[in-house]
Amino acid sequence: MPRVPTSQQTKHRSRKTRKEPYFEKERIKYEYLTIPGDVLSRPFASSFKKNLDPEFVEIPNMSIPKPLRPPPLALCDLECIKTLGQGQYRVLLVRTKRKAHRLDRESFFALKVIPRKVIRKKAIFHAFQPSDEELSIDDPERSNLALLPWNPFIAGLLQTFHDAQNLYLGLEYIPGPTLRSHLRSHNLGLPARDANFYFSNIVCALEFLHSHKIVHRDLKPENFLLGPDGYLVLTDFGTSVRCPNEEIQWKGVGTHFYMAPECHEGMKKIDAHPKDIPYALDWWAAGCVLYELLTGEMAFCEAHEMLTILKAYEELDWPPRVQVSKRTMSFVDDLLEPEPSTGRGCAGGSTE
């Protein structure tokens, strides 16, 4: 017969196998860990300076080190040197004057001043009343540049500021003239080799923007700066837009000398809408800039704006004095094709 355990054996076994809780309120004891002051590291020793027991050693001349990174810049840390440009918005050359941190150094950047009332007027025009917080972010240049990583062909955004009247964009400072100023010194256009070099810079900038779904929409020589190394840098993203975007205004945006035919108001010759092939807008403007680099003249420039628009539908005229290859002429003609679906790099972008 199997052995039946007695009551005492059962009681003893249950006492052995019973699981006690890990914490029991009646057994909790609070113990404090005390560390002598002479073994504390410097950042933590200052908190033990007061109310120390006699056996603890106080470290003399104790100071907490400064942060490794300097604090963000403020408007009061900047000094205005001069005005770089006065277009739709004013651009200032500023430098930092703060010396509070060991990493603070004198640096220069371009400060673009955007009045709040300008953004508010645009918002009211589109039946939208922004708040003060929304005003600080409702700027396409700030929004789009903040999405971009650094690129040598783009003047990047460094920091933003704001006060009660203006928004400020701290941009990379390019100490050089605009491409327009460079063209004025060459009235008859640039040599084909130089024009090819500058246009390759434009292609690199556009390919980078389009890979991040951003359309510039105001490509022209005034918006390209010559850097110290001789390469072009694209600026002024005030009319840029991230695609796809159904709510943005597409027509009538930009400079009409470099504006694609489908962007002109009231023109019914082209059925395509700019939002259907948005990147074609930049390639059209790039073709206009390339023509101007080669000839020293604007591709479409008439006394009246409507005449300029109508000329875009005509065959492109090349001055007899300009000596360029037929391949180059054909390339420019493809970029300045009025129908966006049949040209302008729509098939493969820069690879086309």
Automatic annotation (TrEMBL):
SMART domains: S_TKc. Keywords: ATP-binding, Kinase, Nucleotide-binding, Serine/threonine-protein kinase, Transferase. It comes from the Eukaryota. Its EC number is 2.7.11.1. The keyword DNA-binding does not apply. Pfam families: Pkinase. InterPro entries: Kinase-like_dom_sf (IPR011009), Prot_kinase_dom (IPR000719), Ser/Thr_kinase_AS (IPR008271), Ser_Thr_kinase_AGC (IPR050236). The keyword Plastid does not apply. It catalyses: L-threonyl-[protein] + ATP = O-phospho-L-threonyl-[protein] + ADP + H(+); L-seryl-[protein] + ATP = O-phospho-L-seryl-[protein] + ADP + H(+). One of its GO terms (molecular function) is ATP binding. Residues 1-20 are annotated as: Disordered. Residues 78-352 form the Protein kinase domain. This is non-specific serine/threonine protein kinase. It comes from Agrocybe chaxingu. The lineage of its organism: Eukaryota, Fungi, Dikarya, Basidiomycota, Agaricomycotina.
